[in-house]
Amino acid sequence: MTTISFRLNGREMTRTVDPRQSLADLLRETLNLTGTHLGCEHGACGACTVEVDGMPVRSCIVLSAMCDGRSVETIEGTRADETMNIIRRHFREKHALQCGFCTPGMLMMARDIIRRHTRPDESVIRAELSGQICRCTGYMGIVAAIQAAALEINA
Amino acid sequence: MKAPAFEYVRPRTLDEALSRLAEDDGAMPVSGGQSLLVLMGLRFAMAGTLVDISRLPELNRVSETQERVFLGAATTHARIEDGKVPDPSLGLMPRVANKIAYRAVRNLGTIGGSMALADSAADWPACLIALDADLVIAGPSGERREKAETFVRGPYETGLAPGELIVGIDIPRRKAARWGTYKVNRKSGAFADSMAVVVDSSSDGPARIALTGTSSHARLLRHASAWAEQNRAPDPAALRDAVIADLEEADPSADAYRIRCHIATVTRALAEARA
Q1: CA atoms within a 13 Å half-sphere pointing along the CA-CB vector of B154
Q2: Which helix (DSSP H) or strand (DSSP E) does residue B91 occupy?
Q3: Which homologous superfamily is A81-153 in?
Q4: Which residues on adjacent β-strands are paired with residue A8?
Q5: What residues does each domain of chain A span?
Q6: Domain B179-273 adopts which CATH fold?
Q7: How close A76 comes to chain B (CA, Å)?
Q8: Nearest chain A residue to B46, by CA
Q9: In the CATH scheme, what architecture does the domain B57-172 have?
Q10: By CA distance, what is A21's nearest residue in B?
Q11: Residue A104: helix, strand or coil by DSSP?
Q12: For chain B, which residues make up each domain, given as ranges?
């Protein structure tokens, strides 16, 4: 076992973890933050995307132990984030989700895409989203929502 | 996808990491873990102890001179993509970095890790062979250098001896060379079916064409490089013959599809360099 201290959604915490435990399992199983979804569990689907030190990562292929001293933000931590609320509104208006399984990962990635590309066009959004899989295949709505949100955020 | 139990340590210094690796046969270095943790989850790879080298100062060092750029092994693909570290390649390395996997993976995955794993379709081995880069390697008996070209030896096989670590990549600075690269993959972010990197002939040195996405490992294509060195006028048939001659060594088991991919990526990469 190894002891880690980290910041989770703005709160400092210390936990003792099994070295083989992924960040995703720490969040879901130990901390009951089940907004982070686990799809493939091997870094292929993007459903479990969270931010570590302000960068999106796949929490199924990050060890909890690696987060010692880091700052982690999950979808639950974005409730008061103005940018994320605009993105969420556009996801609703553009019908950018059906079953909702991929949505937390899509939202975390969408915010990062808008942060890095300001006002991305459709081809940039599609290339950047290629690591996020939606099995309802609602990509049209997701891409449209990100594009519309970017235009509002970076008007 | 849960890896079997292992221990995890994060040494503070390179010496501490090296002695940990030297004294324990089951110890394996990990930095971003973006390939290794997947392979361990699938139980293709095993380690008794993971030695986290991602925060070692020596592996995060970046330095540059007029002639060369040194990138610590723990430099992430995203930092190269974003131009956060010096670029010795006139834009080639940021472009290659941008096409590796997905952003969330590039935020953690490292250039040193890509070289140490030596996946047969990995991007950095081909890029660094084309750029004629050296690897700086530390081990129990001190530091040594090895050319990227000889370092990758087979699928997941490298010149690293047990107990050794890649400290960084030392890359000669290009001042005049034009470059091109082309990758064929099923979807953006997937591993390459074929990827070619061309650093063209210039006052910096002779043409170097490297290929990845073969059944073994990234290679310098000697015939294609020599052809590009000697010929400026486009001649698709002659270039094709040179690539086919190279494939006898570089990818002897390639099927018709793969051969077409290799010819296409080399041709398009060279055309981009010369556009």
Answers
A1: 2
A2: none
A3: [2Fe-2S]-binding domain (1.10.150.120)
A4: A11, A72
A5: 2-77, 81-153
A6: Enolase-like; domain 1 (3.30.390)
A7: 19
A8: A20
A9: 2-Layer Sandwich (3.30)
A10: B2
A11: helix
A12: 7-52, 57-172, 179-273
pLDDT digits (tens, 9 = 90+) for B84-118: 999 999 999 999 999 999 999 999 999 999 999 99
- Chain B nearest-CA distance from A57, in A, is 4
Chain A CB contacts of B78 below 8 Å: 55
Quote the minimal CA–CA distance from A122 to chain B in Å: 15
Fold of A2-77: Ubiquitin-like (UB roll) (3.10.20)
Interface predicted TM-score (ipTM) over 0.95: yes
- pLDDT above 90: percentage of residues in chain A: 99
pLDDT in tens, B201-254: 999 999 999 999 999 999 999 999 999 999 999 999 999 999 999 999 999 999
Instruction: Read off the pLDDT band of A137 (50, 70, 90).
Output: confident
d(CA B138, CA B160): 10
| Residue whose C-alpha is closest to residue B126's, from B195, B74, B70, B173 | B195
**Tens-digit pLDDT profile for residues A21-65:** 999 999 999 999 999 999 999 999 999 999 999 999 999 999 999
**B176 contacts B151 by C-beta, under 8 angstroms:** no
Q: Which CATH class is domain B7-52?
A: alpha beta
Q: Which residues contact B273 (CB under 8 A, 6 or more apart)?
A: B178, B179, B180, B198, B199, B200
Q: Is A89 a residue whose pLDDT tops 80?
A: yes
Return the residue of A nearest to B99 by Cα.
A127
**Best residue in A3, A60, A66, A123 to probe B by mutation, most B CBs within 10 Å?**
A66
Would the CB atoms of A65 and B52 count as touching at under 8 Å?
Answer: yes
Q: Which of B8, B10, B100 to mutate to test the interface with A (most CBs of A within 10 A)?
A: B8
